[in-house]
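Table S2 (text version). Query chain:
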Amino acid sequence: MSFNVDKIRADFPILQQQVNGKLLVYLDNAATTQKPKVVLDALINYYQTTNSNVHRGVHTLSMQATDAYEAARTTCQKFINATEAREIIFCRGTTEAINLVAQAYGRNTLKTGDEILISQLEHHSNIVPWQLVCEQTGAILKVAPINEQGEIMMSEYQTLLSSKTKIVAINHVSNSLGTINPVKEMTMMAHAVGAKVLIDGAQALAHVNVDVQDINCDFYAASGHKVYAPMGIGFLYGKAAILEAMQPYQAGGEMIQTVSFLKSTYAPIPQKFEAGTPNVGDAIALGAALTYLTKIGRENIHHYEHELLDYATQQADNFPGLRIIGTAKDKISILAFVLDGIHPHDVGTILDHEGIAVRTGHHCTMPLMEFFKVPATVRASMAFYNTKQEIDELFCALRKVQEMFE
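Corresponding structure-token output:
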């Protein structure tokens, strides 16, 4: 499939609507991506033609639903090049996936004095679960610092690694700055001291090629709604041997093999970690989203989004009173900034009147905002359905913002 942004935009019904009398300019893709019609159709088709619980029925609808659900798991496996489909655990998203690892692995393996290493770039969802585990086990949370460009300081990261380090949890891509971390190198360094590695891939999956075998991480967490699929669905990848050794995170139906009042035994992976009725329709729609991206071509997407980032960055560099927050050499298409003398929330409100959707605030990275000494930023996050014309409209609107505050 050749890359044609006009044709791609036609795949997304929401992009055709107006907001405040202006054609929507949607630049809030790091918060959630819009959904192509093929994903919406997959979801509607499931509920109209196949709706049934999976794995539990011998009737036709149940078997069809099971086949479609497991096919979506295989699609996820292939998208990240996992070794086996059973290494994919469906869950609500990255947050639940990290909590699963924190509780089912971390809580059961860590002891007093052990260390968990994260970075200063992390989303709250990759900070707070580890703080809870530290409180539960007596482990200690360590933080790798960043430089003024928003890049992890690799020498400091290396220094913090030791035989005490049992878990390293880092994001692949920063949700606030767009920084792409050298996760393969960081994983290799962590493994050298015997640590297990979890990667928060929420912001990476839609923008960069993810190969978990090449990275060699032990866990990889992802959210469907960041990658053009519905909200409330995502997955955790884990190496099969590690998942098999872990205790269940939640208990109930589906995750059991036998149950008696004296003792219960557990189903094999992945079912061991998928207690209760699964989110079948959204899992199928997630598979449809990943198939859609594969057809477009991830290299095509990456190349086009990099063009958008370069174009937006050039305009930002020449915009009086604007300061970019996060200038890493390796970034995805996120432009975070502040305007002199104007609070980001005011910027976002005025932009909305112009039909432009951006995100303002601390972006669930309050420690990162403290590092840059700002209360919040404006974040314009671009996807492959955005255009240079929309970026022009953004900066035209920013000039109006400044004029209102003169």
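Notes on Table S2: The chain has two domains: 5-33+298-401, 40-294. The chain has 14 helices and 17 strands.
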